[in-house]
Amino acid sequence: MVLGALTDQLTRGVEGAVSAVSETFFEPVLRIGVTGLSRAGKTVFITGLVANLLDRGRMPQLANASRIETAFLQPQPDDTLPRFDYEGHLAAMTGDDPRWPASTRAISELRLSLRIRPSGIAAMRGGGARTLHLDIVDYPGEWLLDLALLDKSYAEWSEVTLARIDKRPQAAGYIATARAEDGSLRLAEPRAQALAQAYTAYLTQARADGYSDCTPGRFLLPGDLVGSPVLTFAPLPKPATTPRGSLWREMDRRFEAYKARVVTPFFRDHFARIDRQVVLVDALGAIHAGPPAVEDLRRTMAEVLGAFRPGRNGLLSALLGTRRVERILFAATKADHLHHTQHPQLTAIMEALLRDARARADFAGAKTAALSLASLRATVEETVARDGTDLNVVRGRLLATGKQAAMYPGALPTDPARLLAPAREGAAKWLDAEFALMAFAPARLNLRPGEGPPHIRLDRAAEFLIGDKL
Ligand SMILES: Nc1nc2c(ncn2[C@@H]2O[C@H](COP(=O)(O)OP(=O)(O)OP(=O)(O)O)[C@@H](O)[C@H]2O)c(=O)[nH]1
Ligand SMILES: [Mg+2]
Questions:
Q1: The whole model's pTM is what?
Q2: Which residue, judged by its Cα, is nearest atom 17 of ligand 1?
Q3: Residue of minimum CA distance from atom 2 in ligand 1
Q4: Mean pLDDT calculated for residue range 419-434
Q5: Among the listed residues 229, 58, 200, the one whose alpha carbon sits nearest the alpha carbon of residue 142
Q6: Contact (CB, 8 A) for 461 and 433
Q7: Which of 223, 322, 332, 347 has the most crowded CB, counting CB atoms within 10 A?
Q8: Per-residue DSSP letters for 170-192?
Q9: What angle is formed at CA 136 by the lines to CA 132 and CA 139, rounded to 5 degrees?
Q10: Ligand 1: nearest atom to the Cα of 101
Q11: What is the rounded distance in angstroms from the CA atom of residue 138 to the CA atom of residue 48?
């Protein structure tokens, strides 16, 4: 115990010294935020990207990769943020018994430093290599959705939330409980807890059924706030009177505390410092789940991307000042579930979603791009004959049974409106198509020296994110 604490202090001391040193030399730092809703693929993305930046044999589309002399991990500058467990996640994904990394429930950070050879005039002048630090921050997309809470009162939030979830079968139980509640009665803590629990149960079910608009974000990812009063509130119909000490008043107070103590610090301490942002989306998962999930994804992504447009929120503008996110990459993950002949269709869906968000407000000069990628390719492609036609399928090891299986996920339309329009119009099922999805386990790898794990278009993602800095 004592020894553990001591070594901990020692390493912390070293970390402090290192970050102090690097800062005195004014080495440029690029802070890259990676977000997405739960299970979107953030952890696998960061692990795959970092592994492929450390060993760049599979990064042909990163144009100036040859200028990177070396890449190495360093202690991160923020001493109070958990470190992204790169080694643990990589070991899980590329070990003898490859597994997906465990779900991560909070924010974490990793510093990857690149030594870059001089080019152009600097090279002619005989200048030495320079260093670029990439501070990569993994945070839940649900936290961005909380931005929408900041300019709402408890009464407004309750009203829009209850209206939105009113018709959802997952919410039937909560809605009945909430409508039966009299908020003007004196607060009894067990009632408040029961309401918060019932609301969290709804959020959990909605999330499992593919809904994305599951806020407040910390209800699903409470971390060390679990059970605390800032998480013990829920939306209620407003009673005619709200006397002092009533349930409604206390819920109102806790909602405000959540905004002030949970939401604002995140935007101030983390979000406001991001230079470039990756927003990851499990679009195939939503398509598989059906039109309501796709429509919900569209709305939620517009809202997530809305966090990056300045001026939308007074508090955010104040926090950001003139600072802006410079680039936003909007990427569909897990593209290895599709044969490459269908990747353009998946990308087109992402472009349509991005256009939709951009139509409401531009991102004040931020460069945006849409992409489909696989951070760790778990399948191979095959063409099989079925009913007299050739079918382009992917093959992999099933997560559930460990057996090899081929999957044809269905034909994505070339025009994304064929999916987005019925979703928007409230269709319950896809009319003329079905989309299957299997979960594959990562494949066993035999990596050659200098090669990172296999991926699809991580090099394109890297080019967009850091290419101009190499
Ligand atoms: N086939 C395939 N599956 C992937 C890929 N990336 C992610 N997945 C699947 O998606 C799951 C979630 O990926 P994570 O990277 O853990 O997602 P996350 O966004 O970090 O999830 P939370 O930490 O729970 O918020 C994994 O367990 C895999 O099953 C990929 O490139 N290919
Ligand atoms: Mg994660």
A1: 0.88
A2: 41
A3: 334
A4: 90
A5: 200
A6: no
A7: 332
A8: GGHHHHHHHHH--TTSBP-HHHH
A9: 160
A10: 16
A11: 13
